């Protein structure tokens, strides 16, 4: 009985959404049904698409011969059906004319590029070589589309929540929150409670709030609050007692938005007295000083060691220059253990790394000083 059930399983090709040029993003798996494939994709954060695999080969011509001689139940055997065939190439760019040349399958159905009943994909993987690009693919797949996930940028919030192991009724904190876009992914998927804060002051319309963003999805009950404060001010927290189940954040790198903290520039005493007199009767906005990324990350780790519950996780992004990066560049703290270090490539020389750390020891000032 077990053998017959195993034989009933079908082959699928899973397309991962990653940018590692040296690796094949296509993974062949076996599943009992399309429903099982959809269920896997609903929880697979880094999965881009999944297809029912109809055939694979080392070149397009061999693949077409296999497909013509196969006995697959083709849903497009009737003229009443419509279909669409996409061509996707990894590590290779092709023109529309080149893609059309590869589509030599003859289905009885009608071609419908906008709303087809059935979608198919020809997937080609080329070995990466920046000096001498390969002319022929290393592997070619053809399959029927089953399901795709959202675009990569929104998916990153789900990836961060997954790495933070956010679960129901968790209190999640973001010390550098902006519009709160990633909070939607956490609250919608994991039903965690978010309590973000902001550093610095930014002008927005009255209805442009994190709460209103969550209200559009009927998720406002999971929202605690947001406030404007200087992240580096420990007096704000009053105590070192753990309170957060996870800290998930994307610190400002100083590129799109400045890295700053509240502080005073070095001035003479006469200048300080003059400025104090001029602002004594008016609203006084605190001055800001530059905040180096290294100092910011060290403060973030120290803050996490103080305020995370034991076993809680810190998840943050760290920009790097790929040519000079070494694992020792990752900041460390005696109370935190490095769990994961993954890369998102922007350009050939620039990328950022998603760092995940877990609190393994209670914070103790004496231990830190020694």
Protein traits:
VC0802-like, 25% helix, six-stranded mixed β-sheet, alpha/beta, 370 residues, single chain, seven-stranded mixed β-sheet, 10 helices, Rossmann fold
CATH architecture annotation name of the largest domain: 3-Layer(aba) Sandwich
Overall pLDDT level: 77
Please state the oligomeric state of the protein chains shown: single chain
Q: Which structural class fits the helix and strand makeup?
A: alpha/beta
Strand and helix order: HEEHEHEHEEEHEHEHEEHEHEEEH
Poorly predicted parts: 190-203
Radius of gyration: 27 Å
By CATH's scheme, which homologous superfamily of the largest domain applies?
Vaccinia Virus protein VP39
DSSP strand content: 25-35%
Main β-sheet, spatial strand arrangement: 2-1-3-7-6-4-5
Describe what you observe in this structure.
- Residues 190-203 have low confidence and may be disordered.
- Helix 5 (152-163) packs across helix 6 (181-190).
- 25% of the residues lie in helices and 29% in strands.
- The relative contact order is 0.10.
- The chain has 2 domains: 2-149, 2-Layer Sandwich (VC0802-like); 153-369, Rossmann fold (3-Layer(aba) Sandwich), CATH 3.40.50.
- It has 10 helices and 15 strands.
- One of its GO terms (biological process) is methylation.
Summary?
This protein has 370 residues and is of the alpha/beta class. It contains 10 helices and 15 strands.
